[in-house]
Write a structure and sequence with these properties.
The chain is mainly α. It has one domain (3-80): Recoverin, domain 1 (Orthogonal Bundle). Helices cover 58% and strands 5% of the residues. The chain has helices at residues 3-9, 16-26, 36-46, 52-62, 72-80, and strands spanning 33-34, 70-71. A two-stranded antiparallel sheet has the order 1-2. α2 (16-26) crosses α3, α2 crosses α5 (72-80) and α3 crosses α4 (52-62). The protein is globular and about 25 Å long. It starts with a helix and ends in a 5-residue tail after the last helix.
């Protein structure tokens, strides 16, 4: 993960269920996955300084299968930094 995002986002103390709720809220089209733009919108709520370029880099790092989307478990792992998953 990008170092400054890790510092910002990993400091959040939220339960897995709270993170899953954030995912569902961010999933604007109801697809069950987050696109880079949906992820960007969600992360901007937590850190207004997050840039789209950072999200594109993050997505390419996390999107192992290259489908351009982030699933709910990947989102929870991202924001919990592996602590709860």
């Amino acid at each position: 993960m990008l170092p400054f995002l890790e510092d910002e986002l990993c400091s959040q103390e939220e339960s897995v269920e709270e993170l899953r709720d954030k995912f569902r809220e961010a999933d604007a089209d109801g697809s069950g996955f987050l696109s880079a733009s949906e992820l960007w919108a969600a992360l901007k709520k937590m850190d207004p300084g997050v840039e789209l370029n950072d999200i594109v880099s993050l997505m390419s790092e996390l999107d192992v299968d290259g489908d351009g989307q982030l699933g709910i478990d990947e989102f929870v792992a991202l924001l919990s930094c592996g602590d709860h998953v």
